């Protein structure tokens, strides 16, 4: 039974991590292609992407947008997504909560 539940928790963790990475990429892509013209639009695009991940509550994610000028003068947008993943069972040796965070940087259209 422990192996089964442990496998479920592990699969859920990898799914959440994949969703967090996809959300960061989706938000940065929306800004880079000009579909998201403000930081709020970029955050909404990332949150919408994360909301498609099964078992993840996108409203609990902290999403931030940072804009900068690159070395060649191009505009860069970085989207960072932080999400706290919680296991189904409080395992004795493994942490019950793990903060998943990923960021993606792309050249911005604006």
* Overall helicity: 40-55%
What general form does the structure show?
elongated
Strand content: 25-35%
Cα(first) to Cα(last) distance is: 53 Å
Secondary-structure content class:
alpha+beta
- Average pLDDT level: 92
Tally of strands:
3
| Largest sheet features | 3 strands, antiparallel
Instruction: State the helix count.
Output: 2
Radius of gyration: 16 Å
Strand order across the biggest sheet?
1-2-3
H/E topology pattern: HHEEE
Low-confidence stretches: none
Overall structural domain count = 1
At a glance:
The protein has 110 residues and is α+β, with helices and mostly antiparallel strands. It contains 2 helices and 3 strands; from the N terminus they run H-H-E-E-E. It has helices spanning 2-32, 39-51; strands at 62-69, 75-86, 97-107.
Overview of the structural elements:
This protein is of the alpha+beta class and 110 residues long. The protein has one domain (2-107). Helices cover 40% and strands 28% of the residues. The protein has 2 helices and 3 strands. A 3-stranded antiparallel β-sheet has the order 1-2-3, covered by helices on one side. Helix 1 (2-32) packs antiparallel against helix 2. The longest helix is centred in the N-terminal third of the chain and has 31 residues, at 2-32. The chain is elongated, with a radius of gyration of 16 Å.
